[in-house]
Amino acid sequence: MIRRIAFSVLLGVSFVFGSLAFAQPPMREQLVYSLTSFNGSTYSKSFAPQSEDIIYFVANVNNIIVPRKTIVYYWPITRRYMAGFSTLNEGVPGQLEILQGGKVVATLREQKYVLYYPEGYWSEKAVMYLDEEADACYDKYKKAVDEFNKKLKAYYEAMQRYREELNRFFEEVRRRREAGETGPLNIPVPKEPSPPDFVEFYASEPASGFVVNLPPGHYELRIRLDDGTILEGSEKKLVVFTSRRRGGVGYEIIPGNRWTKRENCDDPSWIIHAVGKNELYFNPFTQEEYNELYHNKLQDPQNIGRIERWKWVHVDPVKNATVLLGRGKEILKAVTKAPYFVKQIPGPELGYEIVEYDEELKKKGYKPTFESFKVLLDPSLPKASYTIQAVAGENQAPLPESERTIQLLRKENSTYLYVLALLPIVVGIVVVLGRRAKIEA
Amino acid sequence: MRSFRVMMTLFKRDFLYSLYSLGYYIALFASFVVSSFILKNFLDSIGEEDILVSAYPLNYPLYITLIIISLYLVILSGVSISREREQGTLEVLFYGPVTSGSFLWGKYLKDLCLGIVALGFTALYFGLVSVLTNIGFTVGLVKALVMGVFLLSCIVSFGLFISSLTGRIRSSVLTLVAVLGAFLAIQFAYNALLGFEKESLSVPLLYVRQAMSYVFRGISWISPFAYLSRGLDSVVLENPFLYATHIVYALVYSLIFVFLSVYVMTKRGVKA
Known about the structure:
The complex is a heterodimer of chains A (441) and B (272).
Chain A: H1 2-21, E1 27-38, E2 43-48, E3 54-58, E4 63-75, E5 80-84, E6 90-91, E7 95-100, E8 103-108, E9 111-117, E10 127-130, H2 131-178, E11 202-203, E12 207-212, E13 217-224, E14 236-241, E15 245-255, E16 263-265, E17 271-275, E18 278-291, H3 292-299, E19 310-317, E20 321-327, E21 330-335, E22 338-344, E23 352-356, H4 359-363, E24 370-377, E25 385-392, E26 404-408, H5 417-420, H6 423-440
Parallel strand pairs in A: 3-14, 17-26
Antiparallel strand pairs in A: 1-2, 1-4, 4-5, 4-6, 4-12, 7-8, 7-13, 9-10, 9-11, 9-12, 13-14, 15-16, 15-18, 18-19, 18-24, 20-21, 20-25, 22-23, 22-24, 25-26
Chain B: H1 2-19, H2 22-44, E1 50-54, H3 59-86, H4 89-95, H5 100-133, H6 139-165, H7 169-194, H8 203-219, H9 224-237, H10 240-268
Helix pairs in contact in B: 1-5, 2-3, 3-5, 3-6, 3-7, 5-6, 5-10, 6-7, 6-9, 6-10, 7-8, 9-10
């Protein structure tokens, strides 16, 4: 009897676990926070599902929180909750309350905002405009797009005329040649119209959300509905943080022998150790250092990070600068930014060559692969310490925290390191024998 | 004044005894062999016509050297205290002008001075490494060496405290090795797990890392190796305020543990 019961229980348990394994990911309606967060350089979009208790924002800048009711499901492959905004995307009426130490420090109403991309939709930089400025910004973009469309229409019409004129031109040439006319025909060649430039900037459509701009600290937030009650499940913690170090310059380095595998030399204490000949392309950036956990969670609350670790975030490329290669106080070379083109070479060798981007390549319709400051570490250089520093183009003033050391190493001597380890033994023998001799004397 | 003279006499006797013994130099040799191994691997990891971007490469060998030297000094002091207690030398000494304070402060000073001499050797060794391979002997390394004195002081004072709690040589050595070994193991294991990104860690290892994080936080104000890590980190951060703060922390930590050791020895007495 006991065996039968045990067998039935085991069968039941296996059935339950077996069905769980084959189950579809559960989908449920949830209150989530849709986030537009400033990440030190630009704005990134993410959402905080119910599983995440804490939302992270950078201090003293505008960030957007929008509470939404949506369908959330767990995607086991990426171990993440996904939001089905296309299925359900319902707004939540009410006010956002921000509390600190149990006291309400701010009550926010939804505001209109747009993200303005001064260098176009695909660029990384974005600026947020609120309320009337948001409307004005979007109107400016719409006006620019309307003007572009008008110009485009005019261009198509001009192209049509151009094609007709071109046909007439060829017809005239053929007719006069067939009529036996020789020598120059002196018929004006129709001029091809040039297309209008697309709008250089971009503005997102105005949207509404709670604008959170707070000093660093730990807060809580919740939604108070229009009837005065707190919306269930809307309470979350809010960590507002700032960078640990800022105002310095970091470098992205493109090694000539592996241009797709770039290196970063961000921290001022980092040293570039080089062996043999090296062709290095430096790209300086202004940067800020953030806590890894906070910054990862800021970009997506479901990310994980290490609170003990810090990471550098490149804010902007340094423009109008010169890079100096020096040794001690002597400047060996001043390097300016130049465009480069990666030329693929067929065959089993390196596979590519980095060449200066010149007029010939431009005429062939190629575009530069990257722009950078090229520094050549020649094997003939003495094996010593060198420095790289970015200076402002206009007054040659050194940019803060932009100096890095380059050590040209003598790798061939590494075997002798073990010999150096014998130093204390030699000293010890001398001391002990000397002492013994002294006592005996 | 009399206690100070007694302390200086004990310090001088122990210091010279250790300095004239080959064990001290063998410990230094062992630490330099480990450093050479690390540095050789560092150099070998850079391919021909290639670069490697890293923080001060001599900092990690310095960290290892500090650990090996301080462990040697701490175990040496622990053994010497227990031996003197077991053999009754301590009891005889305490019938004279020697007190727990002068005895333990003498031991502490001896270990600290031997540590400073070891750091001098380390500086010389790193200088020669720099000449040989052109790995930079930087200002940061000098700062780290100075910080090393205070961090050695932390480890030495903690070791004295553990030694004052134990009676026999065997229990003293075992306790020291177990406690300091556990601190080191936690620190190394946690740092090793921290080096992995989330994607490369299995779920059980993620939980282990989280658990280690709590344990590490728990011991971070007791373990002298945590002070060592933080002190060397402040050098890398190039923040003078943080650097000074860590020196103050190390001094306070050392004072607390030396006073605790004196208190425990006074309470326990000198008999084994």
